[in-house]
Design brief:
It is a single chain. The protein is α/β, with parallel strands linked by helices. It folds into 2 domains: 2-199 and 433-446, Rossmann fold (3-Layer(aba) Sandwich), CATH 3.40.50; 216-430, Rossmann fold (3-Layer(aba) Sandwich). Helix content is 41%, strand content 18%. It has 14 helices and 20 strands. The chain has helices at 15-29, 59-71, 76-101, 118-131, 155-162, 179-189, 216-219, 241-258, 287-299, 347-354, 365-371, 396-410, 413-431, 433-446; strands at residues 2-7, 33-38, 48-50, 105-109, 134-139, 171-176, 194-195, 227-230, 261-263, 266-268, 274-278, 303-306, 311-312, 316-318, 321-325, 335-338, 358-361, 379-380, 386-388, 391-393. The chain has a 7-stranded parallel β-sheet with strand order 3-2-1-4-5-6-7, sandwiched between helices.
Length: 447
C-alpha cells in the first residue's frame, strides 16, 4: 500500500513527529511504501511532498492565527477573504500531491483536531472529500485544550472549530492518546474514539556512551562531580520549565549543605553544581516564555544550558562541528524532570523510563488519569500550581519534600535501580512498539 502521513511539520523532536516516525518505520518494515505530506521536514527526506503553507511557522500563517485568536483587527468579510485565499492555495497543492501519489491510506496527525493552521485543516478536508481516501485521524492535542484557541475573534472561525474533529465516512478511525480527550470529543462531537496512548522502543537501546558522544559533558562544561538534570521537552509555557529550574536550584542548595555527600557513586562537593540541560527547541509563539525562564535561571543563579542548536533528530557533523542526536543526552543524565501542566500523553516520561533514569514529575491531569494507574514509581512534585509573575509554580513545601525524597534516593543507587527496572517493565508491557505493530497490522487487515 501507499501510505501518507500528513502533519504541519515532520522529522522534528516534538511528540507528534516522534509518533509519526514510529508508525512509518513499522509500516515500512511490513512492506508498505511511506510518504510524508508536510510544510517542513527536519530530516530532508526524498519521500516528502513539501507544501510550505502547511507549516505553522510561516509568517503569513502566524499573522492569520494571531488575528483570528488574539488581535481581531479586521472586518469579518475581509478576514474571510484572506482565509480562503490561503485555503485555496493549500487545496491546489494538496490536490496535486494526492493526484500524483494516489495514496491507499492516510494518517492525519493533529490537523483535524488543532487550530494552529485552520486553512490547512479545511483545505485537507476538501481534498479528502474529493478523493475519498481511507483516513485515520490521530488526534494528539485539541484546540479546546488551549486557552489561546477558545475565544476566536470571528464567527466563521468559531463555526470551523465547532466542526472539529470532522466526521466523514472515509475517516475509518478517530484515535486519541488519553481518556480525557476520549470523553470530551464524545461529549462535544458524538465521536467514539479509539484510545491508543504513546509508544516507545523498549526492545533495543536508542543510545549509549560511545566515541561520538563521549565528550558531551565536557563539551557543555559539565564537571564529573556535577549532577546533570535533563529536561527534554520543547520550550513552551505549558511545559512549566520554571518548576524544573526551582527544583534543581533547591536540590543544589540542599546537597551543598550536606557536602561532601556520596550520590550515584560520585562525591557531590560544596563546589559541585546541579546543571539543567535543555536540548529541545523553542516552540512557535513561545519566545516570550523562553525569555522569562532564562531570566528566572539568571535570577536564582541556576546553571541552565539551552542547547537546541547542538541537538537534532539524528547525529551529524557540519563543517567539523558536531551535532548530537537528541537521544545522546540521556545516557549522561542523572535525573530527568518532567514538569508539564498539560500533555496529551507523556512521550518524555516514556523516554526517561526507557533510559532507566529516575523521573521527577509534576502530576498533570492526563498523568494522574492514565499513566499513574499503570504503577510507576517517581519523585512527585504534586499536582498543584500557583501563578506568580506570569509563571506557574509548585508550592515551596512540595518542592522541598521532593528535594528530600530525591536526596534519599540519590544515596541509594540500588533502590534507584529497583525503581527504574520496575518502571521499564511496566512501560514495555503497556507502550512497546510491538504493541503498536500489532495494532497497525490489525488496521491494515481490516482494510
Amino acid at each position: 500500500m501507499k501510505i501518507a502521513f500528513i502533519h504541519y511539520r515532520t522529522g522534528e523532536r516534538d511528540g507528534v513527529s516522534l509518533e509519526i516516525e514510529k508508525r512509518a518505520e513499522i509500516l515500512q518494515k511490513l512492506g508498505h511504501k511511506v510518504f510524508y505530506i508536510t510544510g517542513f521536514d527536519g530530516l530532508e527526506r526524498q519521500n516528502v511532498f513539501l507544501i510550505k503553507e502547511l507549516d505553522i511557522k510561516t509568517s503569513y500563517n502566524k499573522f492569520l492565527r494571531e488575528d483570528c485568536f488574539y488581535n481581531g483587527l479586521f472586518e469579518e468579510n475581509f478576514m474571510i477573504s484572506l482565509y480562503f485565499q490561503l485555503e485555496n492555495k493549500i487545496y491546489k497543492k494538496l490536490n496535486k500531491a494526492f493526484e500524483k501519489l494516489k495514496p491507499d491510506l492516510v494518517f492525519v496527525h493533529n490537523i483535524f483536531s488543532h487550530a494552529y493552521n485552520l486553512p490547512a485543516t479545511t483545505a485537507l478536508l476538501k481534498v479528502l472529500d474529493k478523493h475519498q481516501v481511507k483516513t485515520v485521524a490521530v488526534n494528539h492535542d485539541f484546540w479546546f485544550e488551549r486557552p489561546y484557541f477558545q475565544k476566536p475573534k470571528y464567527f466563521f472561525i468559531k463555526e470551523i472549530l465547532q466542526s472539529l474533529p470532522p466526521v466523514r465516512p472515509y475517516i475509518i478511525k478517530q484515535q486519541v492518546i488519553n481518556s480525557l480527550a476520549q470523553e470530551e470529543i464524545l461529549r462535544r462531537r458524538g465521536i467514539k474514539a479509539e484510545l491508543i496512548g504513546d509508544y516507545f522502543e523498549y526492545s533495543q537501546p536508542l543510545a549509549k556512551i560511545d566515541d561520538f558522544n563521549r565528550d558531551l559533558r565536557e563539551y557543555f562544561g559539565i564537571k564529573k562531580d556535577d549532577l546533570l538534570m535533563l529536561h527534554a521537552t520543547r520550550i513552551t509555557q505549558r511545559k512549566n520549565i520554571e518548576n524544573a529550574f526551582v527544583f534543581a536550584r533547591e536540590l543544589e542548595k540542599a546537597l551543598r549543605k550536606l557536602a561532601p555527600i556520596k550520590i550515584l557513586g560520585k562525591t557531590f562537593k560544596r563546589t559541585s553544581r546541579v546543571v539543567v540541560l535543555l536540548p529541545n527547541f523553542v516552540e512557535v509563539d513561545a519566545l516570550p516564555y523562553y525569555k522569562e525562564i532564562k531570566k528566572l535561571a539568571e535570577k536564582i543563579k541556576l546553571n541552565a544550558i539551552f542547547a537546541w542548536e547542538k541537538f537534532m533528530p539524528e547525529r551529524k557533523e557540519e563543517n567539523g562541528v558536531k551535532i548530537y542526536s537528541f537521544w545522546d543526552a540521556y545516557p549522561f543524565a542523572d535525573l530527568i524532570t518532567y514538569t508539564s501542566s498539560w500533555e496529551g500523553f507523556g512521550n518524555q516520561f516514556l523516554e526517561a523510563v526507557h533510559f532507566k533514569k529516575l523521573p521527577v514529575v509534576f502530576e498533570y491531569p492526563v498523568f494522574e488519569k492514565d499513566i499513574k494507574r499503570e504503577g510507576y514509581e517517581y519523585v512527585s512534585l504534586g499536582s498543584e500550581l500557583k501563578r506568580r509573575n506570569g509563571l506557574a509554580f509548585v508550592p515551596k513545601e512540595k518542592v522541598k519534600s521532593a528535594v528530600r525524597d530525591t536526596i534519599k534516593l540519590l544515596q541509594k543507587p540500588k533502590e534507584i535501580k529497583r525503581i527504574v527496572e520496575k518502571n521499564f517493565k511496566i512501560a514495555r508491557k503497556n507502550h512497546s512498539l510491538e504493541k503498536l505493530e500489532k495494532e497497525l497490522k490489525s488496521l491494515i487487515k481490516s482494510l
